[in-house]
Amino acid sequence: MVPSVEEAQRYQVELENVSKRHNIYERPTDRLKELVFRNRKCFHREYWALEDFSYKFERHGTAILGPNGSGKSTLLQMIAGVLKPTTGKIIRRGRVTAILELGAGFQPEYTGRENVMLFGMILGISEEEMHERMDAIADFAEIGEFFDQPVKTYSSGMVVRLAFACATNVKPDILLIDEALAVGDKRFVHKCTQHVHELARASNTVILVTHDMQAVRNYCNSAILISDGKMVADGDVESVISEYENVVSIQQTGASKKFYMPVS
Questions:
Q1: Which letter does DSSP use for residue 68 in this model?
Q2: pLDDT of the chain along its 264 residues, tens only?
Q3: Distance CA 232, CA 224 (A)
Q4: 88 in helix, strand or coil?
Q5: How many CA atoms lie within 13 A of 136 on its CB side?
């Protein structure tokens, strides 16, 4: 079904019945056995990280919440195009940039400047445009002379600063952030927060995965909650945070009972 013009303008990311399956092998040789038997025999078990997930992300900040192992990062990686869904369809409208993990995609032997150019090439941005944006990225990252030093000499905080500066200063239509907001002192974190707010106000789509509820309140207008690979709640930030805290509390209580051993 072709979306209406109004829908296409309202939603930059749409997921239709998306699922992701991982094949889990007990031993490395089991994968080889399947190749030998040409998949006529199964030596793995299936793990569905995400099941039949449908959602339309509006042009503002949306948080993806859930306990560890719920499928949040898998979902973000599929939206970014790093992973392909096993079933279903993902629609993206516009330029996607992502901060998925510390320094992902950076070449340690290259300087910060060289990595910025490489980042642009991966996104399909012209060399001319990246040169035009270079000073803005360097100024935003605030890593000084290290910008022209190899990334392998950077602290973890400097790497994330550079990644954040790259992702947010190339005019992304869709910005994906996975646990990468504590990128420096309070002043720099505030600077990042303001920048993301500006992107969201400009009708860009910002999708955030985090366990930091204050960051959710600072960045997002709405939220969704995932548990065991399925969406269990969506709506305004406070109501979804409340549901998230209930889920985490129930899981912690269950774990406590599981490992509780009475003293005889």
A1: T
A2: 556 666 667 889 999 999 999 888 888 888 888 888 777 788 788 899 999 999 999 999 999 999 988 999 899 999 999 899 999 999 999 989 888 765 567 899 999 999 999 999 988 899 999 999 999 999 999 999 999 999 999 988 888 889 889 888 888 899 998 876 655 667 777 788 788 878 877 878 999 998 889 889 888 899 999 999 999 999 999 999 999 999 888 877 765 555 454 544
A3: 8
A4: strand
A5: 12
Report which residue type is found at 149.
Q
As a residue count, the chain comes to 264
- Selection from 6, 7, 168, 198 nearest residue 91 by Cα: 7
Q: Which of 78, 18, 22, 20 is nearest to 52 (CA)?
A: 18
For helices 112-123 and 156-168, angle between their N-to-C axes, nearest 10 degrees: 40
112-117 contacts, C-beta under 8 A, 24 or more apart: 112/138, 112/141, 112/143, 112/146, 112/147, 112/148, 112/149, 112/151, 112/154, 112/162, 113/138, 113/147, 113/148, 115/151, 115/162, 115/166, 116/162, 116/166
- Residue 5's Cβ-count burial label (10 Å; 0-12, 13-18, 19+) is exposed
Evaluate whether 89 touches 17 at the Cβ level (below 8 Å).
yes
Task: For residue 196, give both structure tokens.
Answer: 């993301």
